[in-house]
Amino acid sequence: MSRGQDEPAAFGPYRVRGTLGRGGMGIVYWGEHRDTGQEVAIKTVEAAFGQVIASIRREIHALGRVRHPGIVQILAQGVDDGRPWYAMELLRGRTLRALIEARRPGEPLSHEELATICGVMRRLCEALSCLHGAEFVHRDLKPENIFLRDDGAPVLVDFGIAARFSGASGRDALETGVVTGSPPYMSPEQIRGDLVDARSDLYALGCILHECLTGHPPFEGPTPRDVIGKHLGEVPAPPSASVPGLPAALDRLVLVLLAKRPQDRMGYAEDVAAALAAFAPAEPTRRCWAEPYLYRPSFIGRHDVVWKLQAHLGAARSGEGRSVFIGGESGIGKTRLVAQLASLAQRAGFTVVTGECVAFGAHGAGAAPLHPFRPLLLAIADHCRHTGPAETARILGERATMLAAYEPTLATLAPAKAAAEPLSILPSRTARQRVVAGLTETLLAYAETEPLLLAIDDLQWADELSLRFLRDLVFTPLVGRRMLVVGTYRTDEVGEALAGLLAAPGASRVELGALDPASTRQVARDMLALPEMPQAFLDFLADASDGNPFFLAEYLRTALSEGLVYRDAGGVFRIAARGQDPSAVRAALRLPRSLAGLLERHLAGLDAPSQRLARLSATIGREVDEEVLRRAAGLPEATLMDALGSLRRAYVLEDGGGGRLRFLHEKLRERAYAEIPEDERRDVHARVGRALEEVYPDEQRIDHVEALAYHYGESGQIERAAHYAEEAAAKAARAYALDDARRRYGDTLVWLEKIPQTEDVSRRRVSATVRWAEACLYEPSLRQIEVLAEAREIAARIGDAGGVLLCDYWASWIAYALGDHAGAIRISERAIDEARALGDHKLLYQLVLNLGQNYAAGGAYDEALASIRQGISMKEQSPWGGRTAGCAYGYGYLGMIHGDRGEFAEAHAYLDTALAITAELGRRSLEDSVLVQRAMVEGWQGAFEACAATATRARTLAEILGAPYVAAMSNTAEGLSLFSLGKREDGLALLREAVQWIEATGTRLNVSWSYGALAEALALSGRAEEAATYARAALARAEAGDRIGLSTAHRALALATRGDAAREHLDAALDAARQKKSPREEALAHLCAARVFHDEGTPAAAQEAAAALAAFEAMGMAGFAGEARALLESIALPGSTRAA
């Protein structure tokens, strides 16, 4: 064993003298302590990366605390060049394999040989009991990993794949297990990738005992696959079938250990040792009989729900995609149910992808937008990398660049040519919808490969974008999609957004109730791995836990850890009570009746360092980064490791994977946090904030700004809290999580108001207000204008002219979005003066264009034309000029105004120019807006078939781009055209759909036209009462400043009323048309008057119809001219009535 050239010289205080072995999990070196000369075996842990090194070292430390002569002793540990290592005692001698191979298979055993084998196995059970009592499962028990000392004592070695297990876990994991081990000794559950516990080691022990007795393992085959198949499905032969004369009791013991179901095996290694005692030498001195521990129970009491979910799974496999949401109280077993479904789905050939919504600490601030879907995006990235460019293009297309903002690994799969229209140039609400639609399209494409189960846990903590995505998915027809989407949520924490998702027509709901008493009792038996327990104790558990599995586990754990329930020398559970009735049991156990009391008692049993660490962990959050905890605690490493070990053994914390810890249950975290004295909380939060800054340098800190804002806010360090809140808000805005952005900018402003108002702070307040207003644009309110006015005063007071301008700029936009066009005009005119004074020509031209749009919406067409032309001219003639998106919007408005006035040649010329600019810029969203304007003009012109075609094109594009406002306006244009073409019900359906969307979203921008159009169509259909309702809604919006539908609303009311009221509305319709100088609307008012007068039998009907016909013909409005001509001919017929 000489040193090789590529071997390291040393690990910590140990010199490397050679290599003992290599394996997939690492390398074992022969080492020697430089001071004492002690020889050791040094094992490195390969494939470790930064996140998991702390977790590996914690596990090594915990293993090092397991003291038993039958477990190899870990002497030291460390990290060398990023590789964790640990030093073990160097064993000399042979392995159990040598003992087995010393005799021929099938050869009869003498009494002494049998006693030797059973003695070795009995002592091995001692070591296993100690290991299992520390909640470790070896996972690779085999003769090669059992060393025999010179005196024949067995020693367990090679913990390279050892893992923790705990049946008292506060919740289950959705992730499926990893298959590891050696095929001849692997348990069925280990082969399937299920979660394993100590009974998996006992299965391996049965295989080893069988091999020791017979010379061969219970299952053999030419290939590992054959052996694995036999473990899963073949009944083992008893050892006596190979070696006659073996005691029947040994046969029974081996067969019990080899039971396929863990529940059918013995549960404790000491019980196996007791069974072996009859055949072994005198009992050795006990070194480490473990305290009883809890097992993960079998799946009990939910089979009716599983059948329902299996039906959904079967439908999804057949191409009927489904979305199912599972609700219940905390700890009721939602995650366990979904884990069971995931296991069934995997066996049915589904790809299973899981995610989890995370809440940081008590502040409830969620993780980054779309965080629960990062595992899905990672799975898609892996699939695309493995399948090549064609499949990548099919699944991701140009969406890879967009989605890389939420999962950076997708950036490597983006096409070389960037998408023509990046999200950054889109309106924020459109960009947000584009992200949601893009993720939906990507998921649907991925699900075409093979059946998919997507499971998301804890939706009550989901971020805004995640809920919007799920809502979009629920409303997406999944016929032909082999996909099942499952989410879990707590029924007592359902917010408004989640409630909307759950109420969606495409969402199926399942609510879990309490387990029935019989199921609760069986869960208790399973957790203790015993078929029988004292009935009084079982009755107490069923009553006290209210059928909640988590509460049940808490009662069991407390009763065991405090010795209120114990195993006697014969392995039988006993209660420290006199009498066996439930009241006596309750009195003896002295356990609190409330969960809060039980958790308080749970935590009170910890030592002082562990209590402090639990409180610190609770401050960090439900999941705890171990390095952050280490920095915040400031404890010596050994003390920290010991305290973490105590928290693990006390079922407070568990391994969360990736170098993270997590509370077994949120209720535990809440209780631990509540126990922090009020006067200490600020300091605790400050330490966590500093630790986060230390662990994550500037370039990585962006992922943690939400938590930093919270911790510094709670610590009273308001300036730092405001800094991080502003970064978190900007991050949310970049991800188009607009609700989050608004909330976080609001937090920023609240905190900035609390610190001394220096000029710098005042500037930050103005800047944050402007950014907040930008995020508010598509959900406007009067309060936003008031806040901007306050910020404008601050900017003026400190001489921040740019801030004053930006406050007015965004206030004008919000007033426009509110439909307050008079207010928007007033603010825009002031802002134009400010921009000129500052020489800000870029904002100036946009403000002039905005002013024109507000004039147009208010019906002041002359002023609108002048402003828009001025704005376009300023932009095209400026040094930084050229035709921009603003110019396209301007030309589109020019086209719409000329169209409304009946000047269709000019209108189409402007619209053609606008569309040409959108093509030059590659701006499809802008093209969509101009297409709607074109459809409106074609409808006004009476070119109904052309209008319907253009509107359909615009709506289709809007659906692709995620632009619902444009889709609604397209529906209005197409609905009017279909109505005029005689497809009245189809037209009314589209008109209603547009108005329903407007009412559902509260949109106020240019909506009087949609209300007026629906009202007039209803009136022409003879539905006067309904027409009047929508017409009055249009008038209300017109009075607020949105006057584009004013004349239409009055026409509808004229048709829906009689007598003087009708004439008043006819006069109002004419006045509205004349005010905006629209001959087109005047002609429509004359046509409406002809219909009203004809219905009343008034002679003026012919005159009005003739005037309308002449005007329509002069303007080239052929469709309307046809209507007027038909009406005029009808009037000439004796006894005729109004023709709609």
TrEMBL record:
Gene3D superfamilies: Tetratricopeptide repeat domain, Transferase(Phosphotransferase) domain 1. GO terms for cellular component: cytoplasm. Pfam families: AAA_16, Pkinase. The keyword Kinase does not apply. The keyword Chloroplast does not apply. SMART domains: S_TKc, TPR. GO terms for molecular function: adenylate cyclase activity; ATP binding; protein kinase activity. ATP binds at K43. Keywords: ATP-binding, Nucleotide-binding. Coiled coil: none annotated. Residues 14-294 form the Protein kinase domain. SUPFAM superfamilies: P-loop containing nucleoside triphosphate hydrolases (SSF52540), Protein kinase-like (PK-like) (SSF56112), TPR-like (SSF48452). This is Protein kinase domain-containing protein.
